[in-house]
From TrEMBL, chains A, B:
InterPro entries recorded: Aldolase_TIM, DapA-like
TM ranges: none
Active site: 131, 159
Translocase among keywords: no
GO molecular function, one term: 4-hydroxy-tetrahydrodipicolinate synthase activity
Name of the protein in its database record: 4-hydroxy-tetrahydrodipicolinate synthase
Chain sites annotated for binding pyruvate: 44
Family note: Belongs to the DapA family.
SMART domains listed in its UniProt record: DHDPS (SM01130)
Pfam families: DHDPS
Keywords from the named record: Lyase
Amino acid sequence: MFTGLSAFPLTPLRDDAVDHEALAAIVRRLVAAGVDSITVLGSTGSYAYLDRAERQAAIATAVEHADGVPVFAGVGALRTKHVLEHAADAQDAGAQALLVAPVSYQPLTADDVLGLFTDVVEHTDLPVIVYDNPGTTRFAFDDALYARLADLPGIASIKIPGIADAAAAHERLRELRELLPDRITIGISGDAHAARGLAAGCDAWYSVIAGTIAPPMVALTRAALAGDHDAAAAASARLQPLWDLFAEHGSLRVTAAIAEHLGMATRSCLPRPILGLDDEQRRRVHAVVAELELEA
Amino acid sequence: MFTGLSAFPLTPLRDDAVDHEALAAIVRRLVAAGVDSITVLGSTGSYAYLDRAERQAAIATAVEHADGVPVFAGVGALRTKHVLEHAADAQDAGAQALLVAPVSYQPLTADDVLGLFTDVVEHTDLPVIVYDNPGTTRFAFDDALYARLADLPGIASIKIPGIADAAAAHERLRELRELLPDRITIGISGDAHAARGLAAGCDAWYSVIAGTIAPPMVALTRAALAGDHDAAAAASARLQPLWDLFAEHGSLRVTAAIAEHLGMATRSCLPRPILGLDDEQRRRVHAVVAELELEA
């Protein structure tokens, strides 16, 4: 279940409340495009900004419209108590796995994070995806902690940060395969690094952009998993203007601007204080959407 | 009101719920020691981990036991909607000012942060303290943003990060006095930097340790504000073993270990996943408490 393309949709807001109609329509588009799974309430799904009831309702909407495609749910929170509440809610709402980010305010130690994942697996029947992204969580995993986490039952996959160099990616995947049991899949994140990560042997792509614009990302993933890494690399290279926008403004603001431009969300769909891109920035996003024919 | 020593108490937990009896006793100790104000729900007060009801109840407890000493309340949250809810709750609970931290998950722009503070001052009658601490919020203010914030009515004080060098501190305060109107006070944070900040002309010390161990910090502040900066510097130098522990483990975990050691909170008073210091680390904290006679 933790292989192929997992699409991370936005959770669009409208008048500062979750826009369930928009979320449902996005989920139906992802299903139609043939993604392998849908991860709601990732960083792209603004999990950190939503309260408990909003989160459970968003998961329920996604499950209702996913037509059997597995739905994974982000349940991260600063406090373990809240993570466990979200995990129970996600299971009740029909999620098939949990994405757990060790999000921090006070810096966390490795023992804190091991304790968090231990508490989660003891309180849920669902498989757990470990979210490793120091850029958002401000926690840096090391291999000793990976090894300790791999001993916990229920850890099913690790979402690793992007790796900027092909040789480094191959070396890193070799190390991880030695470190981790076969039952734990490895998924690449950082959309610009996806083709390289899949070529290096990742099992999955945990993708921001595929949560909004899925078809080219499905094609890229299918090519890579069929072994045609030249085609996947070419597909990724073609999207370089999009990756450049992600690098400049962050993937969330750019993806939200695309969704708003294409009518998939209303203007200002991100939670305040995040204002989204300004008009000049949006014009550049719209030009890239047209150039890459992302509206298709 | 935004001058002198503002003490930031812990919000001790017991069995994963706010220990109001412990909080009340801490507040009464601060009042007895003669602090100028009490800021509940700062970073030291674990605001980021507490839900809305817990926050309002903690403020109410502090106000009830503060015997007229002004109580300020941290109201930070990732989403503006929640900040405004906390601000209204704090006012209802009797807080006399709001501490607003531009805490972030997705990186914020200067326009986002200006929008946040604009929304806050439009929705509250209470004066606002700007919390500038990139180490916890991951947002770095610049002087252009300070100047724009200073134009907002209701901004009463800025809590600035510590400055490691005396000459740099004097130069920075000179710059800030030019930039900011007289009605906005400047408070130093980073306890190890307090004497230097007050010598450089800060009006206030926003203090972590004074929220748990107040008397020596009151004495240091009184000396500095009376112009006896040599005495303040000597008082700070005497506390160097404590500052070294803060640098090594962070001020929160050390302060919690001190409070637990002195019976002001029960063991594991921090919100999980934060486990607090281990036994060996605690032995070193206890030795410093004895050496510096902090239990007095």
